[in-house]
Amino acid sequence: MIEHKQSGEASEELLHAHIESSSLRQHCEMVANAMEAYAISLGKSEIEIVNWWTAGLLHDLDWEKYPEEHPKKAVHEILPPLGYPAEVIAAINAHAPERTGKEPESEIERYLFACDEISGFMNAVALMRPNGFDDMKAKSVRKKLKDKRFAANVPREDIRKGADLINTELPEHITFLIEVFKKL
Ligand SMILES: [Fe+2]
Ligand SMILES: [Fe+2]
After folding, report:
1. What's 75's DSSP letter?
2. What single string gives the DSSP state of each residue in 83-116?
3. CA of 124 to the centre of ligand 2 (A)
4. Is the pTM of this model over 0.85?
5. Predicted confidence (pLDDT) at residue 6 exceeds the cutoff of 80
6. In this structure, which residues have their CB less than 5 angstroms from ion ligand 2?
7. Ligand 1: centre distance to CA 60 (Å)
8. I want to staple 163 with a disulfide (CB 3.0 to 4.6 A). Which of 127, 134, 170, 176 is the partner?
9. What is the dihedral of CA 26, 28, 29, 32, to 10 degrees?
10. Taking a C-beta distance cutoff of 8 angstroms, is the pair 97, 104 a contact?
């Protein structure tokens, strides 16, 4: 059995070897924590919790060095020889269906898709607020979602699609994530 801390450390090292940008690293950490929290709330096993966390942490691994090939470089070349589980690699492949042609279907794939863009968007909202995530409410995030000029690069359709994929109302999804991000 893989020990959480050990495999976690190896993945953190891999992340740091491939990504220099502190904001991209932070995004990866946020998605990892979101995935871990959902895995726990869904009653997943220890191994699955690690896999969900890992998929979140490494989903943008090749973004900085190989933006054109993202996430195929990671999925086909970087991760397989390192022995990452197939479901982790599959989830990373399916987080960018417009690039890989693979829609998120399995649970880990759907949750990764659902946690990705909203995490980036919520971080942009947190940066505008004096207390960041501490007193953030789902309502203020939804208000910003309606403001097309705010974080204009974040595709709103993907945020809605993500909530649909995990059969969760968007405010509920956002509230869950505020609780996760508050603790980081
Ligand atoms: Fe990505
Ligand atoms: Fe991402």
Report:
1. I
2. T--HHHHHHHHHT-HHHHS----SHHHHHHHHHH
3. 13
4. yes
5. no
6. 60, 116
7. 5
8. 170
9. 160
10. yes
